[in-house]
Amino acid sequence: MSDEREPGARSPRLSAVFGNPEFRALWSAEAVSVLGDQLARVAFSVLVFQRTDSAALSALVYALTFLPALLGGALLGWVADRYPRRRVMIVSDLGRMLLALPMVWPGLPLPVLCGLIVATVLLGSPHTAAQGALLPEVLRGTLLERGYAVRQITGQTAQVAGFATGGAVLVVLSPSATLAINAATFGLSALLVRLGVGARPAPARGGPAGTGTPRRWTGDVAEGARTVFGDPQLRTLALVVWLAGCFIAPEGLAVAYAAELGAGPLAVGLLMAAIPAGSVVGALVFTRWVRPEVRERTTLPLAIAAGLPLTVSPLVPSVGVAIVLWSVTGACVAAALVQAQASFVRRTPPGARGRATGLAAAGLIGAQGLALLAGGLIAQRWSPAAGVATVGITAVLLLAGLLVTPPARALGRSA
Fold first, then answer.
1. 22 vs 264: CA distance, rounded Å
2. pLDDT tens-digit readout, 267-321
3. Do 17-202 and 219-415 agree at the fold level?
4. Longest pairwise C-alpha distance within the chain
5. Topology, domain 219-415
6. GO cellular-component terms in the record (predicted)?
């Protein structure tokens, strides 16, 4: 597999990716969209609670901003392989803008609001698949890892900034006005992609083997699954991404965990920020100062190392120690994910990258959801520390099992 890298070559600076105008456009569009999404999530929560005085309904609507992506990633990634990927991103953004505009109406019935949220999140799945499939064509060689690292850092920062800004914005603006800002971010994202990303033809047309026969979408979905699960190394990389994604579970238990340690709201915020902050440092250090061949060999060991700090949660004496341990987890997770994602898209055939990327993204969301659910149930039955530790131990054992498989050993040798 050629990836245009030179073993032992000095890694370019992280900022080198911004010398590529297409990446600048993709990055800017994604940053704007993530910030708008976070503003919208805060606004949805406040709006629904104000109208219903129900914490359960508020939580349900918040969950709707995530869960449909699980279905959309698995079933709609094929769109990014059937049509030009820049066009898919633009149409997705414009469609989401049109869906977001009615949400601005303060009197919109709650069931209609929920339906629009689901449709908006589903329509984002082809955009995510197209962007992931396009990135290896925009960034070549070692710049691809830099691009994933920048996206990791930007995504974590934008999420924190979006939540913080969302609270501040709602002090001076109504939830409806905040949702109008969210709708505008979709339009701005479409404009940035239209002006900054070059047009490319669709990677795949017609049916199998160039017969010209239109391919049914179910066949595209099945082929995406075969692409990922039929290649032992792709399957291994996907499992690494999914299992490493489970280590965000502590964020969902931060409130209860801080209470268990006798700490207050400030500790909750610091605990929730620990993993994202560690992710920023891990992505930066790993991609800037570690050689490419070393990065590939250490992807799976780093994923295993990410879970080890969580396994000792019941023994942690203070919030300060927990913050340090969770930060180490975040750093190792980011390092593993950046390289695993880059290796995944490199190995995937160009014409199937949309479907494969969509399926991988859906699996990541599903794994994170299951980890959060399992951690919460264990915390409810025993303790928050037990919930964090159980998720960590389970994922570590599964990752260690992958470490001894032939595909994992082959990935290490191909570095």
1. 45
2. 877 887 788 889 988 888 888 788 877 888 889 999 999 999 999 988 998 989 9
3. yes
4. 66
5. Growth Hormone; Chain: A; (1.20.1250)
6. plasma membrane
SS3 label, residue 383: coil
Residue 160: partners with Cβ closer than 8 Å, 6 or more residues away: 273, 276
Rounded Cα distance between 103 and 137, Å, is 36
Helix (H) or strand (E) holding 302: helix 299-311
- In 173-260, which residue ranges form alpha helices assigned H by DSSP? 175-196, 217-229, 232-245, 249-252, 254-260
Question: CA 199, 205, 207: angle at the middle one, nearest 5?
Answer: 165
The encoded tokens of residue 412 equal: 């290490």
Alpha carbons 353 and 224: distance in angstroms, whole number: 8
Q: Which fold has domain 17-202?
A: Growth Hormone; Chain: A; (1.20.1250)
Rounded to two decimals, the pTM is 0.77
Count Cβ neighbours within 10 Å for each residue of 189-214 and write b for 16 or more, e otherwise. Answer: bbbbbbebbeeeebbbeeeeeeeeee
